[in-house]
Amino acid sequence: MQNVDFFRLRAALDVGGEFQAHSLLSLLVLDALFWLGLLALCFSSRRDATDAPASDARSTARRMAASCWIASLAFGALFSQMGRFATLMIPFVALACSFELAARGLHAGSRLWLLAGRTRASNVMLGCLAALSCAYGVATAWVNWQLGGSFDASLRRELAQLARQLPPGARVAATWNDAELYAFYAPHARYLNVYDPVFMAVGDPARHALWSRILAGDVPDVPDAIARGLDSEYLALSLGSHAALERRLSNDPRVKLLQLGRHALFRIQPASASKR
């Protein structure tokens, strides 16, 4: 049921882009080398009459191909809606094609057949495509790590400082994207929405709606809503991501700024506490 609810509500949840459908440009950029490699494998396949597979082996290959095609179609339908299912669809497509070739008595040959009867060495072509794919994957991971601050020593120091200001058991309101980062540096705190956000959206829709309105800057009394409505005493967020909320917090005497950098940490003091 969690997966069904997540699929149904994903557009309204605080989730990453991998849960949305990929654009045509993303498909070309991310998967073009795979499809080219698959085409090269198919166009280089040939039948060797001297090494024909046994009938039982071909029968097994047919069953495996059918199973993999079914899985490819199922995960392909999910992939059309959520890009992260490429991690399941792509391997099953590759397996389905491989078993399909085996079922037809074909295997990868040494030459790649092109138009007008021309050929090229298939091993060289497949090797180049594999090398390019690996290089592209490493480069993409490196860029994502850089953008995520994995190699940023100043960001690590900032998050470590933020963690030191949270006492054990501190109740922290943070978005799902930010909370996983804070939980890594401050596992001793408790977070409003650190697990899959569908649990909060389905289990407590009123609280989820309130949290969404707070983040959008639509709640006039933010400290009271966070303290009473969300049962939280701290608010942590990455600056620049919620401009309307940041404006509401800037001049509120019940909000104490503990840290300001790329991430901000606020101590929430509701009206009853600020009067004492």
Explain this structure.
The structure is a single chain. The chain has 276 residues and is α/β, with parallel strands linked by helices. The protein has 2 domains: 2-147, no CATH class; 153-274. It contains 12 helices and 9 strands. A hairpin with a 5-residue loop joins strand 3 and strand 4 (119-121). Helix 2 runs antiparallel to helix 5 and helix 3 (55-79) runs antiparallel to helix 4. The protein is elongated, with a radius of gyration of 27 Å. The model has no long low-confidence stretch (mean pLDDT 83).
Please outline the helices and strands.
Elements: H1 2-9, H2 24-44, E1 45-47, H3 55-79, H4 86-103, E2 106-108, E3 111-113, E4 119-121, H5 122-147, H6 153-164, E5 171-173, H7 176-185, E6 190-191, H8 198-203, H9 205-216, H10 222-229, E7 234-238, H11 243-250, E8 255-260, E9 263-268, H12 271-274
Parallel strand pairs: 5-6, 5-7
Antiparallel strand pairs: 1-2, 3-4, 7-9, 8-9
Helix pairs in contact: 2-5, 3-4, 9-10
Give the overall silhouette: elongated
Strand content: 5-15%
- The tally of strands reads 9
Largest sheet: 5 strands, mixed
What is the domain tally?
2
Succession of helices and strands? HHEHHEEEHHEHEHHHEHEEH
**Gap between N and C termini:** 47 Å
How much is the average pLDDT? 83
Structural class from helices and strands? Answer: alpha/beta
Uncertain segments: none
